[in-house]
Design a protein that fits this description.
- Helix content is 27%, strand content 18%.
- The chain has 414 residues and is of the alpha/beta class.
- It folds into two domains: 296 residues, D-Maltodextrin-Binding Protein, domain 2; 93 residues, Periplasmic binding protein-like II (D-Maltodextrin-Binding Protein, domain 2, 3-Layer(aba) Sandwich).
- The protein has a five-stranded mixed beta sheet, sandwiched between helices. A five-stranded mixed beta sheet has the order 7-6-8-5-9. Strands 11-12-13 form a three-stranded antiparallel beta sheet.
Length: 414
């Protein structure tokens, strides 16, 4: 039976760019098909990332560059939910009481090459040595340098419209730029795409191509209302990807990428972590042929470290509000051995914890989907976490340390 929303009006937060507004209106249009009598008011909000167009993303860090101001309004209950490009939503952590309440069907997750309109070439291979490729993504730069070492890579910031204007101005010196295919498709600019880069050359960003809707964790009404939008294959893939990124502790300054495939039963996750110039990297994959089998039954192929602080509570579909679920990581290196997950994990209790009578819905890598089997989501999360652990065993830790020593984080004026 379809859920009946408790309110007749919801306020929807969004960034102000043309693409953000198109995505938000698309989500509202889909909701109206299920709830024709509910009204949705769009609230436009400018983020730090929209205001600062000069600092490279790698120098800003993974601190909610495109989400912070929206989350402040959400926390203050000035809006009820926010439509995001999921790749913009940090995977390492979300503010207290924030979750992803729905993930819609993923568009094309690949990257695209946009050749400057004043050039005749049609692909990266055709561009002469020294050509300037516009991108602020360390993920794209590190992987592209492996295949196109003779090209140069130049910071380009701004929304899609701004970047297109920069590319079209010969005086700015961009010969091409790299963007997400999905963004250009949603803007009806597919005819401007010169080349699509296949994942065997450049793996894509966590959540790329998917729309995620952020809301308050204690707002069960909104979470259940949004649940009609969940696309199970996309949710499963994105939970695994976000768990991978959270465990690897990646962000805008860390070149990391994935390729995830889910066939309705089994899941395969490919992941890579590189240093900034692509000269060092670790890459591997992990599979689970049947996500419906509960991990409480030991399966040697898919084991996760007991000391990993990403493990979830298993307290009968709910998590208690404001209980501190984080566990301190062991002082010794816990990435040397993969250990089985305990069959059950008792909810953490604390005399100082504030417990409310209304239980919170369980989440997986900050994704809360009430209409998808929890065993499937739990196993997807474990796949992502275990892939990250494998990469750490292969030397990801030294690559991460190298990056952090070489990328200064510049404080952003708000």
């Amino acid at each position: 039976m379809q859920y009946i929303p408790l309110r007749s009006n919801y306020k929807v937060g969004t960034r102000q760019s043309e693409l953000a507004l198109i995505q938000t209106e698309s989500v509202i249009g889909q909701l109206k098909k299920f709830y024709p009598h509910v009204e949705y008011e769009v609230i436009k909000i400018k983020t730090i990332g929209d205001k600062n167009l000069l600092t490279p993303l790698a120098n800003i860090g993974d601190k909610g560059l495109f989400t912070k101001e929206l989350e402040i309004e959400l926390n203050q209950k000035n809006i009820d939910f926010v439509v995001h490009s999921l790749k913009d939503v940090p995977s390492t952590t979300l503010p207290p009481n924030m979750v992803i309440g729905a993930i819609l069907e993923r568009a094309d997750p690949r990257d695209a090459v946009i050749i400057a309109p004043w050039r005749q070439e049609k692909s990266l291979h055709e561009l002469p040595a020294g050509s300037a490729i516009g991108t602020s993504s360390t993920r794209r730069i590190a992987q592209l340098k492996l295949s196109y070492p003779k090209l140069t890579y130049k910071n380009i910031r701004g929304n899609m419209n701004t970047r297109w204007e920069k590319l079209s101005n010969p005086e700015l010196g961009y010969d091409a730029m790299i963007v997400a295919v999905a963004g250009f498709q949603r803007l009806n600019w597919a005819d401007r795409i010169s080349e699509i880069i296949e994942p065997d050359r450049v793996l894509y960003a966590i959540g790329q191509g998917a729309l995620g809707i952020e809301c308050r964790h204690d707002d069960n009404d909104t979470i259940r209302m949004l649940s009609v939008l969940n696309h199970e294959p996309t949710v499963v893939c994105c939970v695994a990807e976000r768990a991978f990124l959270r465990r690897i502790e990646g962000g805008c300054s860390i070149p990391n990428a994935v390729r995830t495939e889910y066939n309705g039963t089994g899941l395969t996750v490919n992941g890579i972590l590189l240093n900034l110039d692509g000269s060092r990297y670790v890459k591997d994959q992990i599979e689970n042929s049947n996500l419906t089998i509960s991990m409480t039954t030991p399966i040697p192929s898919f084991l996760v470290s007991q000391t990993d602080d990403d493990l979830l509570l298993t307290d009968n579909d709910t998590q208690t509000h404001r209980i501190n679920r984080k566990r301190k990581r062991a002082e010794s290196n816990d990435d040397d051995t993969l250990l089985p997950q305990p069959e059950t994990t008792a909810p953490i209790s604390s005399p100082s914890a504030t417990i409310e009578t209304s239980p919170l819905l369980r989440h997986f890598a900050h994704v809360c989907c009430v209409n998808i089997n929890e065993t499937i989501l739990e196993n997807a999360e474990l796949c992502g976490t275990n892939l990250a652990v494998k990469l750490m065993q292969m030397g990801a830790g030294s690559i991460l340390e190298e990056i952090r020593q070489n990328v200064p984080i510049i404080p952003i004026q708000q």
